Amino acid sequence: MIISIEWLRSLVDFDLNSQDLADLLTAGGTEAEPGGESIIKLDLTPNRPDCMSHLGVAREVSVLTGSKLKRPEINLSKSDTKVDDSFSIEIANDNECPRYAARIVRNIKVGPSPDWMSSRLEAVGIRSINNVVDVANYVLMELGHPLHTFDLKLLQGNKIVVRLANDGEKIVTLDNEERTMNNHHLLICDGKKPVALAGIMGCANSEVTESTTDILIESAYFDPITIRRGSKSLDLATEASKRFERGTDFEGLITALDRTAELLSELAGGDIDRGILDAYPNKILNEKITLQADKASELIGCTIDEKFINKTFSALEISCKKTKNGFSALPPTFRPDLKRDIDLIEELARVYGYGTIPSDFQYDGNLTEIKVDPLKHVAELKRFLAGIGFNEISSNSLMNSKRAALFEDNILEVQNPLSNEMSVLRPSLLPGLLRSIKYNLNRSEPNLALFEHGIVFAADKKAELGKVESEHLTGIVCGQRNPQGWRSGDEPYDLFYLKGVIESLADFINVTLTDISEAKKSLLFNNEQIASVNDNVMAQIGAIRTDQLKGYDIDIPLFGFSINLDFITTMMAETSRYQPVPQFPAIVRDFTFSVANHIQAGEIEKLIKQKGTDLLTKVELVDLYAGEQVSSDNKSVSFRIKFESKERTLTDTEIDKISESIIQVTENKLGAKLR
Amino acid sequence: MTLQDKINNIKSQFADAVKGLSLTKKEVSDIKNQFLGRKGSVAQLFNEMKNLPPEDRSQAGKELNILKSELSTKIDNLLHAAADDSTSSLESSIDPTLPGDFIPVGSIHPIEKTIQEIKNIFGAIGFNSVYGPEIDDDYHNFEALNIPHYHPARDMQDTFYITDDVVLRTHTSNTQIHVMEEQQPPLRVIVPGRVYRNEAISVRSYCLFHQIEGLYVSKNVTFAEMKGTLEYFVKSFFGQNVKTRFRPSYFPFTEPSAEVDVSCIFCKGSGCKTCKQTGWLEILGCGMVDPDVFLKVGYDSEKWSGYAFGLGIERMTMLKYGIDDIRLFFNGDVRFLRQFR
Description:
With 675 residues, chain A is an alpha+beta fold. Chain A is built from 19 helices and 31 strands.
């Protein structure tokens, strides 16, 4: 909302430039910034409809500076004609329209407005049309109450009827749009037809034109929810609707009506019929509020004394009586936001000044139970991954539905998406990772190790609110780990790299992997391998599926992992017990076997472990070779085996014996020959 | 001479043999033979073990093994360090300008870094971290926070709907309600998390962002205490010299409500582009918990009072690092991400 400083000065005296005025209002809770020297712009919160006018802002200035508010004086010229009693106002739905008042002004001459009025309107961004339209706009901007003017001669049947619309009823509004009504829209009708969409916009059929001579001025109070609902469903917000939906002044509307009639008669030369047509079936009661004497001081945290309370309430036009325990306060009818004692305390706090309220920093450490952050271990895990070269990303949870279908069924849809590209919630973290891979590949960044931690979604009719949210941590790698090193060859980011990541992770969280093997059924990846500890799945690794790669227009193989956060964080939360450092030297033996190509290294390793007795503490595969030195259907596999005892120094003889049994069993079962 | 004396002897002989010399590979290998060879001095000691009484042999073996591995490690190191005998070889002259074995280091997302930093600041004064659902019902996201249907405050937050009654949460404030429904006061929590707004994507706004909600409920909590706590936070996060300004505002679920500004960290308050010449940056909203919210969760507002606050992580992060485009957080560009370790 724009406020003209010149206009404001006519309503309250102040000695401030536009910047200082804006700062004053901002400090009082009405956020303002100067728009040059002559205007300020307000960013109003929805609880303060009273500030949607120059008078309202002038009142704020008066409250904050102590300067007196100068209300416009209204002098209605006397007319001989009494208002026509045969013109009736009927309210069919008084919940939606609790009050409807009108005045009639006759014999006006439509023409241009005087300069003082058109320049004030233009200052606040309203184009001058003619004296009738301008007066209604002027009063709106001055007092904040929306008015509507009808050409009286176009109203049929000598009456106004306020009623809810019928479903499907059609009207043409002032902007020449035909609009279809629902039964919650409120209409202003004459004896025959709708003439306005109540509180939102008038109809073209009763508009004031150059030839209009007699006018009916409407000043009404409409139910805020009705107007809000109507405006929302038609996607039509106007200066009028914005005020009605926040709550207008159900008593002050008469002042606005009088002011409009006065200005019309003054500027367009009309005669005002004596008396008001006022349909007000049930008087709206303004409730008194009880405020206990010390409550404001207690909640704010400093002394708010009686003198300050009285002075502030008086400036805010809250009438206030002292009672035995405190105050009985009656808020003005233009402040729909003041209903409870806490609302009055807020008024006191903001006028006292948030900057003046002292700061009190105390911390009582015993007050609440300190709980461990459920994500404490996830943070450590992220540090681990970053430490070995992964970049953490954060991707959009909203995505394209076709792409989402490449990853899961049961996709959760958004009812009102921004676009097709963001119409469903991600069912997996892989789409965001793939998107990021593509983005980086396009920018000459071919070597990537990325991970994301976040929530993924699934639709599930049986679940609460029809959805399931799960916390995931997923990663993806692409390209070379250490490209073009001068000392080493290629170190590709591939399945074996990821297998190593999972093995290192197991080491990091102090668990022993009991198995990493091909999954019976690939769920997430192609060639999926599952790493487990006893019967718990710790991670899944594998190649990204081709259809998914295609979906992101990626034509190189990618590998991914997904880890079981529940299991890993549970293991991280456990304190592992100290193991005594070995006291006796270990014996290390290397074995190189020649085996048929189809024999898997894992099979040999398993046999070694079986025969190694409990003296065996580590088996490492240290070399794999195929070529000239071995026959073409064979390969050579080398293992380094470590033996250790906690009780004694091992002798060569006993290790020789174990070695012999390893050599024997691998030969018998796998046909392996020691080289 | 005891065994221990002999061991010490060998050690000092070894030290003499390698002292102050730049050894060639040949020389190192001679030393190795002298001490660890089949007839070397260590092997001799092993031979002498049979002369010991049986009960001492195990201890002796242990000590000799330690000696053997100690010497062999030292010799291995010497072998590595030894210059090659053939001085003409190119490899013998080391080019120190060759690059080291670079190990690629990853990064933690800047939003995560900010969240962790803020969790630490509030954790130090007793705020527990809790988390809530990203998809919630209308009741927890709006109704219970005093934002009924057709309330103009709904315009303050454009909402994504899953069904008419289920929304992508527009703020982490939904978790205030969950926490209070599940626990009795006193309580002190912060709620980091992702929130959604139906807003077109631009340099300044994205359809989702992250917030941290704070909630403190106890007896006799005052506005002054809220001020003190948030000033502690601002100083911890932005630095000791940053000033804080509280000004009245409106949130349906707090009363009185305030907006908190900090003196511009770029121009130190003198006015620049970032602070739009005002010298102030808006960073968070806060207020005393509205009694109607307490009523909804079954707390007695005569007995309890409290404050709540909410701050935008992206905004804090952009201010802290001088980032000027919110979209950078979400497109996964490694050239951006690698700047945050």
